[in-house]
């Protein structure tokens, strides 16, 4: 039986190419020039910052960088960091490093999936410090960071999906939504949401991770447009492979993955620069971002054809 959608793919690709060249490229160029000329401003440095998932990986690196950058600035800047995580020992270690740079640090051991607890803490903190400047929803997991070692083999697909969506998706919403109205009322504030290059397209073995990151990316982009008239900015952060505990676990699960990751310090510097400039999307490495853009703008049947031929002899270790 002929698949009509498959037959349409070449024509859709041609139409997309024409549309990109004739309409989207010149329009995007004009918008980029306009933004550069009209809206380029001096970097804005947040003083009161909250970060979830701050005990390791990108969260740890960016927390330490905020503290060290404030200390070495001329003149030096005061910075308050509220660091949240579920690992008290690692969290306190990060806090001490930040304090050594002169930052005022508050730690709070909390599970971002606990909506009522997050709501209570965030609203109380925001009032107590006189209004947070930056809230970074950064906590994230993959199935093997939740179900340690061989335990993952004994879980169901539903359990793996729930574990990832509860942190990556619901945890993000629990971090951001309580402060939308306070930020809106003040006409000030910045939300940073850690999504992923996987928000755009990744090999579909990691269904739960891809879908959860696509969810928070879409949330960040839509919230950005909604909050702009109120003076509140929103950044979607889309890292590719960064050398963190998550990518370490991923390599343990999938030994055939040989993609070299960006160092976490380099990633933190990229994020910090984008946050200070209030960029709407921070995506890196650039080649990964470009490749994901090509894939998501290609017909699904073409992408599926390439995928299945590249990985036809591969067996899934588990789904989700």
From TrEMBL:
GO cellular component terms, A-Z: membrane
Pfam families: adh_short
Domain of life: Eukaryota
GO molecular function: oxidoreductase activity
InterPro entries for this protein: NAD(P)-bd_dom_sf, SDR_fam
Signal sequence region: none
Record-annotated membrane-spanning stretches: 12-37, 49-68
Keywords assigned: Membrane, Oxidoreductase, Transmembrane, Transmembrane helix
Family according to the record: Belongs to the short-chain dehydrogenases/reductases (SDR) family.
Name used for this protein in its record: Uncharacterized protein
């Amino acid at each position: 039986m002929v698949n009509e959608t498959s037959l349409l793919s070449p024509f859709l690709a041609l139409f997309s190419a024409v549309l990109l060249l004739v309409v989207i490229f010149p329009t995007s160029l004009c918008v980029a020039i306009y933004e550069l000329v009209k809206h380029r401003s001096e970097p804005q440095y947040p003083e009161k910052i909250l970060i979830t998932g701050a005990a390791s990986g990108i969260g740890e690196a960016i927390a330490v960088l905020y503290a060290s950058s404030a200390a070495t600035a001329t003149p030096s800047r005061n910075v308050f960091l509220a660091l949240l995580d579920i690992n008290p020992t690692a969290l306190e270690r990060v806090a001490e490093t930040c304090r050594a740079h002169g930052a005022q640090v508050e730690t709070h051991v909390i599970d971002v999936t606990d909506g009522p607890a997050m709501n209570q803490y965030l609203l109380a903190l925001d009032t107590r410090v006189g209004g947070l400047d930056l809230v970074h929803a950064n906590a994230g997991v993959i199935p093997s960071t939740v179900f340690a070692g061989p335990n993952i083999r004994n879980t169901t697909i539903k359990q793996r999906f729930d574990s990832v969506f509860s942190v990556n998706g619901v945890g993000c919403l629990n971090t951001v939504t309580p402060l939308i109205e306070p930020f809106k009322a003040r006409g000030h504030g910045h939300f940073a949401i850690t999504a992923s290059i996987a928000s755009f397209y990744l090999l579909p073995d990691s269904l739960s991770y891809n879908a959860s990151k696509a969810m928070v990316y879409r949330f960040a982009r839509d919230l950005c447009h909604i909050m702009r008239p109120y003076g509140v900015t929103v950044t979607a952060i889309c890292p590719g492979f960064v050398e963190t505990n998550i990518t370490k676990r991923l390599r343990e699960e999938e030994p055939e993955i040989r993609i070299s990751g960006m160092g976490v310090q380099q990633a933190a510097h990229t994020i910090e620069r984008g946050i200070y400039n209030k960029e709407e999307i921070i995506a890196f490495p650039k080649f990964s971002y470009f490749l994901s853009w090509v894939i998501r703008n290609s017909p699904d049947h073409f992408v599926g054809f390439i995928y299945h031929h590249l990985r036809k002899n591969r067996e899934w270790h588990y789904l989700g």
